């Protein structure tokens, strides 16, 4: 049966949707604070990136984003039936994933696109305390896989274990609020590193060993600078989508987030006893998983 609607109904629906969308993306007070902190992160990272000695402050986080890059190669390799031999990080902020098989035109761009996607997800989760807790647990699973693939690389082990300890420490500060800002920082750092690395390796100068150069050889239709520019646009899009999702999905105020966090994986000493996660047991399970993956 054909149903007719009065003229102008579509326009009214469009106006209602537009007003609702505008309301959803308009930041509240807590979100405004998060955006200001994220802006300060961007400014601080941009400054520290090139200042001698001071850049050592963000050095571990640079290596972590390289780890995200290599881990993205590895996971795409698994999805395309490749055999992952190893993941390695080096002190010069480089990395390599050794694999055999797979589909190169999927595994090569997965490094930049995967790490920018991870960064965008962490940025979105950085708008909410409980979402940051979930993101930390997901990162823990990724860390375990990375430790398995990089079990012979001491630098990777040191980095992952250090970051894991930092995440656990921040989980205990201010009922998880500190963890939210740590997750936000890691997300911003990951996205910025992707943007900088793509520009440096493919647009500003051509590095023959870069993912874009290898991808250009496989495709044979465009130079590496073109693929670098495409990946750069995609990384910027992921960055923007991370902020947008955070604004739309997490509208709770700081007080509401604090109350919700007391009932979701609370730290010892919080006011909730219903779903408390016992810290020694949690650490014991983590150590058992590490032992399983490394023996």
UniProtKB/TrEMBL annotation:
Alphabetized Pfam families for the sequence: Peptidase_M50B
Keywords: Membrane, Transmembrane, Transmembrane helix
Segments passing through the bilayer: 33-51, 105-127, 134-150, 156-174, 181-199, 229-250
InterPro entries (alphabetical): Peptidase_M50B-like (IPR049500)
UniProt entry tagged with the keyword Transmembrane: yes
Nuclease listed as a keyword: no
Protein name: Peptidase M50B-like-domain-containing protein
Organism listed in the record: Amanita thiersii Skay4041
């Amino acid at each position: 049966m054909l149903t007719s609607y009065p003229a102008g109904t579509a326009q009214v629906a469009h106006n209602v949707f537009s007003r609702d969308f505008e309301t959803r993306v308009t930041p509240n007070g807590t979100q405004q604070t998060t955006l200001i902190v994220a802006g300060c992160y961007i400014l601080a990272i941009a400054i520290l990136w090139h200042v001698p000695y001071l850049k050592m402050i963000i050095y571990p986080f640079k290596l972590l984003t390289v780890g995200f890059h290599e881990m993205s190669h590895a996971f795409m390799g698994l999805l395309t039936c490749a055999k992952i031999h190893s993941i390695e990080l080096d002190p010069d902020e480089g990395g390599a994933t050794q694999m055999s098989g797979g589909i190169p035109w999927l595994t090569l761009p997965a490094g930049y696109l995967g790490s920018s996607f991870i960064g965008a997800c962490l940025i979105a989760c950085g708008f909410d305390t409980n979402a940051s807790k979930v993101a930390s647990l997901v990162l823990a699973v990724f860390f375990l896989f990375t430790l398995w693939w990089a079990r012979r690389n001491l630098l990777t082990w040191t980095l992952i274990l250090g970051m894991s300890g930092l995440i656990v420490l921040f989980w205990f500060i201010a009922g998880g609020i500190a963890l939210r800002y740590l997750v936000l920082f890691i997300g911003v750092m990951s996205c910025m590193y992707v943007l900088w690395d793509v520009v440096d390796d493919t647009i500003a100068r051509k590095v023959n060993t870069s993912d874009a150069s290898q991808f250009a050889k496989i495709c044979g239709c465009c130079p590496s600078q073109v693929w670098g520019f495409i990946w750069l646009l995609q990384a910027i899009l992921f960055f923007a989508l991370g902020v947008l999702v955070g604004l739309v999905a997490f509208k709770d105020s700081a007080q509401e987030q604090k109350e919700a966090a007391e009932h979701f994986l609370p730290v010892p000493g919080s006011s909730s006893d219903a779903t408390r996660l016992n810290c020694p047991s949690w650490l014991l399970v983590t150590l058992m998983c590490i032992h399983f993956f490394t023996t």
